[in-house]
Amino acid sequence: MSAEKVTVSIIKADVGSVVGHARPHPSMLDAARNVLKDAQKAGTIEDFYVTRVGDDINLYMTHYKGENNKDVHGAAWECFQQATKIAKKMKLYAAGQDILTDAFSGNVKGAGPGSAEMTFEERGSEPLLFFMADKTEPSAYSLPLTRIFMDPFTTTGLVIDKRAKKGFDFEIQDVMANKKVVMSAPEESWSILSLLGDTSRYAIKRIISRSGIGPAAVVSTDKLNMTAGRYVGKDDPVCICRCQSGLPSVGEYTQPFINTTMLVAGWMRGSHIGAFYPCSPEDSDPTYYDGPPRICCLGFQLNNGKLQGLEPYGAKNGEHIPVDFFGTSTFDNARRCAIKASKFMRSQGPFVPSILGAEEMEYTSRPDVLKELTNRFVSLDEKPKKAAAKKAPAKKAPAKKKKAVEVE
Ligand code: F6R
Ligand code: MG
Ligand code: MG
Hints:
Oligomer: single chain
Mean pLDDT: 92
Bound molecules: fructose -6-phosphate, magnesium ion
């Protein structure tokens, strides 16, 4: 009989913040903790940790109930309801923003919050990384994940670890066509990149080991879709990764965030390009032009379905201390590079590539501008209308021809 599979879930939402779109109030996080304490006592979840990136509350939960479970999602929904109540009472900004429906209908999909979940047999030792990004979209993970899982010049493990060398399957979503496809690396690497390079259309949902270890990474892509012909997807995405022993090591996951300054879509009004700023959750307030887009990386070991960080063994009530990978001085230079690149992008003002292409802008005034100008636009091919013939003055009798005056 195979061992019971554990599910690791992150469910996240922005339900209001202090000041503007900066950070949730600590009381909102406390309210979420209280709900999850009860869910843990009730046996719905094994363990949990509540944190945030920028203005998004992130709930990490472990359980044996499988993905899209009504009780687990219901507990998360209740966290966001309670946090929204506080945000409304305090008149915080955008209170309840990501709560799109009045009634919970079984899971959070389509209801506003985002989720990433993976189910697997817990190994003898199970290191996990939790990436959380704010002010960007799920396809922001495509560049780092392809570097980590497909590029042997980035991840030497792909060459020298015999299980990693077997490669990985990538589940890729096509946002425009609402379809998905599974492609395999290394065989189809260049074809995978030919899709994923278009971050406005394709995003990685899941990466699975081809040496039988199971899922390696999963990204929240809940809001990726075309709504009324418009792309909606700036979901401040999370990504859960399993590490080591045939999967990329912890250091192979973190390395691309130092080696590359990555430009991603989102930032101010979900309509700009800025550089990923790797930081601690504590340093993740969007203080520069509502950004720049920030990414945090917290690590836990999994121990029989429970999270183990730096806290004493057996900690209760979600009182965990994760390892904060991007909060270290090692990433100081990466942060400086991100600010430098972001400032450079800002120098272009409201011109592409500082702003996104028209179809990707979350905010735009263009339809109204065009409407107002409907009658003023003329075709470049239209022949100029002949000016109405002016009434010719009555012809005078021709004057006697004068001798031309020569002009010097
Ligand atoms: C981006 C974000 C902010 C807001 C911006 C305008 O995800 O949350 O950059 O888009 O501050 O917000 P409103 O329209 O609420 O004034
Ligand atoms: Mg927000
Ligand atoms: Mg946010």
